[in-house]
Amino acid sequence: MPLPPTRSVKSKQSTALQLAHKALDADVFTKVWAKNSALTERSAKALHSVGVLRHWTEGQVVLSRGQSTSTALLLVKGRLRVSVTTPEGEEQLLRWMLPGEISGLSSVFAESTYPADLVAVGATQVLHIERARLVDLISHDPAVSVDLLRILGLRINQLFDTLADRGMHSLEQRVWAALERIAKFNSVAVPDGVMLRVSQSDLAQAASASRQRVNQQLRHFQEQGLIRLGYRNIVLLRKAPLR
Question: pLDDT tens for residues 48-59?
C-alpha cells in the first residue's frame, strides 16, 4: 500500500503517513506473504523427490544475473538475498527469498538466463531441480503445475508492485514503500511493534537512494514516532501518534 502522492501542505503529508502506517500490520503481512509465496506441502514433497539438496554458506553466490541455468531453486533453509547491479555498479536490493519459496521458474521454462543475483544469507539449504525432471513431474502431476503457475503469477504481481514503488518521485514515499516490502518477508514481532531485520545500507538499495538521504528520512520518521532505529534493524511502532 504505497503512500499517496506528496502534498504541498505539511499537515496533509502527515495525514497521509498516518493513514499508511495505521493500515500497515507488518506481522500479518509476514504471515500472509510466507503462506502465499510458498508451495503447498504436496508440491514441495513432489519436488523433493526429483531434486538434489545442496548446502551454501554465508556470502556464496548461488546464481548470478545473466547466468544460464536449467535448474529451478527451492529454498529449504536459510535466506537468499535477491539483488541486481546497475550499469553504474550500484547494487539494488530487491527482496529476500524465504524457506518454501521457489525461484528460477521463468528462466527454466523459457530457457533463458537468470535475471538477478542470488546470494546465501547464513547457512542455506537449496533444492536444485533440473529442467528435464521438473518438466516430467508437471506433465504427470497437474496439481504441481497449477501450484507453480500460482507462484509465477505472484512473482509477476510483485514485479509490478516493485516497479510502482520505484516510480515514486518522493524519497519519503520510496523509503516507506521499501519498509512495507521488507516488512512482508523479513520482520519479527516485538512488544511495541514489528522489527525489520535490515541495515540502512540495504534499505537505501531497496529505495534506490543514497544511504545518507535515507538515514535523514528515517530520522524524520523516528521524530514523528513512526519508527525506532536500532543496530541493523528498524522497528515499526504500533499505534504511534505523529507529532
Answer: 999 999 999 999
